[in-house]
Amino acid sequence: DWCGVEGVSTTLRVCEFEGTGRGTAALRDLAAGEVIVSTPRALFINTENLAESRFGHVFAKVAGLDETTCLILLAVMERAACATSKWKDYLESCPAWFGNGLQLTA
Prior knowledge:
With 106 residues, this protein is α+β, with helices and mostly antiparallel strands. It has helices spanning 2-5, 56-61, 67-80, 88-93; strands spanning 9-10, 12-17, 21-26, 37-38.
């Protein structure tokens, strides 16, 4: 289990719900205020670790890229180089397609 090996702890499990799709369910009753997911910062794909990522040097050379664009590109580039990505197991667990309310049809 990639999450456990990388130091993520949780009281949730990922599952498929009939009629609504992918989601999470508690493994046990939870107390108010209880931490349900704890993730080491090194696993985040965020602006704090963008420059230190293996593609950070690429983003630094391209003028005009904002942080949001860099984060999107980092996720795409890590997915493309999945075999050598530190997020390999996570990336492979993500759906190949994800629909949302912004995908509207006429």
